[in-house]
Amino acid sequence: MAISTDHLVVRYGAGNAAVHDVSLEVRRGEVVALLGANGAGKTSTIHALAGEVPAAGGTVLVSGEKTSAPLHRRVRQGIGLLTEERCVFTGLTVRDNLRLGRGSVSDALDLFPELHDHVDRPAGLLSGGQQQMLALGRVLAARPSVLLADELSLGLAPVIVQRLLKAVRAAADSGVAVLLVEQHVHLAIEAADHVYVLRRGKVVHDGAAAPLRGAPDAIAELYLDR
Ligand code: ATP
Description:
Helices cover about 30% and strands about 25% of the residues. The chain is α/β, with parallel strands linked by helices. The longest helix has 16 residues, at about 160-175. Adenosine-5'-triphosphate binds near residues 12 and 36. It holds the Pfam family ABC_tran. This is ABC transporter ATP-binding protein.
């Protein structure tokens, strides 16, 4: 199992837990969508998997290592993290942004040929969609074993989101384990093999993506809070 959490708890300060009880698994070659309303605990789960917030309870394993392991051991986990912030340096050229990654510039451009004509321009001149291609291309060119993608589609048109998800799907097909947090629920379900739905920090649905495709009523049902 490339990614697994078992009864994960995440707490900020002394307040209520943001994540109460999340157990999930992602295998290599699989895209798993982590869905749920705002504040359900999706980002907190991703942050715990990336080792950015400690687990207050339960366990988190990525590539067989605890995310609480020292950094030099966690490097071997091969985590590719794409956060909502994107981390594109707008004053640097596209090429220099790609050089900041651990992969090669040409691998990133092979993944997103759309960036070719812009490679010597400042990244700040790219559209939002192109900037996200840059961020995703940089992460995937490093050949991670695990991709944690939080809100890949934030503020982007559905046609761009589909393009990005196609690249994510291709990465999974080449053996990456992908955990995808996504507001575009229908597009995420199209791209995913498996779906978890969180509500108030807990897993309330765990099942294959296929039965949810083209089933808006079934999806709406998962989001109902009762
Ligand atoms: P969204 O889609 O809005 O990002 P989410 O499902 O990703 O939602 P989280 O961001 O994980 O949910 O938030 C879960 C809960 O934890 C929320 O109640 C939120 O207010 C709280 N929370 C998140 N980050 C922090 C933080 N840094 N400090 C304190 N509370 C936080």
